[in-house]
Amino acid sequence: MEIIKDLPEGLRRDIKRYLCLDLIKKVPLFHNLDDLILDNICDRVKPLVFSRDEKITREGDPVQRMVFIVRGRIISSQSLSKGMVATSIIRPGGFFGDELLSWCLRRPFMDRLPASSATFVCVEPIEAFGLDANHLRYITDHFRYKFANERLKRTARYYSSNWRTWAAVNIQLSWRRYRTRTKGPMISATQNGSSSDRRLLQYAALFMSIRPHDHLE
């Protein structure tokens, strides 16, 4: 990127498109974007490389960029309470930092960057690319018609590690409630079992209180 930054704008854009377009098209969030938007993304993304066990973002830190995984896996860990942690794996095609997407599309706009809801650590060497907050805001402002599209918004929510973790807890809670309602006498009412259910209820209540919010709402 340093080598090509001083080249004529058109040539620089062509080189970055050649280097980045195929990688960008691997991200499900970008599958239905038109060429004009993809060109603008190519011109602004930064290739990123992280080493194994590297901590990319800590929970509570300001989210500086959205990161899209091309190769490798990342573990996301989110603190609950009393030392309990919810974890999930982000694989190629996934992304994190989606708090920025909601931040860009929220009205009225707030200058303060959102806080990361989880800590992200590399399970293995990672190849990725990132969109800095100011570049993502530029793209969403100029192509708002596309980012307001329901299909794109649902895709963003589906691949969000925050929403997946929240959904997993609530699906598990709903399943246990269903089993209790339909198979009540068959389920052992041991102390350990009831304690596990109480913990799950606590998790669900906590996740409901910190439920992810985005521009779908």
TrEMBL record:
UniProt keyword Nucleotide-binding, yes or no: yes
SUPFAM superfamilies with a match to the protein in the record: cAMP-binding domain-like
Domain of life: Eukaryota
Keywords: Calmodulin-binding, cGMP, cGMP-binding, Ion channel, Ion transport, Ligand-gated ion channel, Nucleotide-binding, Transport
Domain Cyclic nucleotide-binding: 29-139
The name this protein goes by in its record: Cyclic nucleotide-binding domain-containing protein
Naturally occurring in which organism (per UniProt): Hibiscus sabdariffa
